[in-house]
């Protein structure tokens, strides 16, 4: 059986050609799958009856099933654990923001980047997700929002489990699918990709001609500390990551966001604030401060509210654009990897 969910229109046309299906019918199939929630060929009522009978003999519409769902007490965050046919499970989070519905998708099952503060990496990486598997996370939430009369998916952040630039081709195919008019028709500017700093693929992404936003996980302003928190820094050191991010901003004219998880007594001091200012001065960039979502297994603590405020003010005083991420969904373990880990343990 070949799974056609997640194929582009061109790929669908190729897959349906052996059945004598004209191109316009491939578009109908795409719209049924991606816009009208069809689960089977039988749902596609404008396809001829004989096609509805023969296509399922060799083609399948494979979608994940909802294995778990948690809603935060304030109703703003919903976390899904989705399971694919081979038993692989991934997390997807919906955040109902004041500016619209934002979802955070996973690109790998688990992750092998080994970041010290992250629950997704505790069990390593199981496998890459296909473009269709990443896209299915967006479709399932889009359909849920529609069913519940809550609008649609407005923005997508590729910031869940996994390093997207280590699954480059599938992630790029997913982004193009999000944008396709026969799928979600989402503007590229509503899509943000977050990387831990895979330098060669940051340069590659800059050349794709896609005006998506880039977010770079920095988390430390010097190599010694960053290598402790993010082992990938030993391969791609800080200066190279910042240079690649600067190149991305200059090529795409898109502001780069640097993510900086604030950890008590580790990277929240005056020395680190000074280093951060020197590193980023003069760039088309902003810093997103993220007070750490404690991961029980790692014993990393959140700074006090006063410390967070001080760090933010220090950057502002030195003309670095800065935001502090609002807490969402800590009561439902919204930090990436935590729900999946719970199921791996059960
Ligand atoms: S923070 Fe991202 S890159 Fe690092 S281990 Fe977690 S999922 Fe992987």
Identify the notable features of this structure and list them briefly.
TIM Barrel; 2 domains; two-stranded parallel ribbon; ten-stranded mixed β-sheet; DNA polymerase, domain 1; elongated; 346 residues; alpha/beta
How would you portray this structure in words?
This protein is elongated. It has a 10-stranded mixed beta sheet with strand order 3-4-5-6-9-10-11-12-13-14, covered by helices on one side. It is of the alpha/beta class. Helix 4 runs parallel beside helix 5 and helix 6 runs parallel beside helix 8. The mean pLDDT is 92. A hairpin with a 5-residue loop joins strand 3 and strand 4. The chain has 2 domains: 59 residues, DNA polymerase, domain 1; 281 residues, TIM Barrel. It has 11 helices and 14 strands. Bound molecules: iron/sulfur cluster. The site of iron/sulfur cluster has 11 residues, from loops. Iron/sulfur cluster (SF4) binds next to loops.
The CATH architecture category of the largest domain equals Alpha-Beta Barrel
Q: What fold name goes in the CATH topology slot of the largest domain?
A: TIM Barrel
Task: Report the end-to-end length measured between terminal Cα atoms.
Answer: 31 Å
Residue share in helix: 25-40%
* Strand arrangement, major sheet: 3-4-5-6-9-10-11-12-13-14
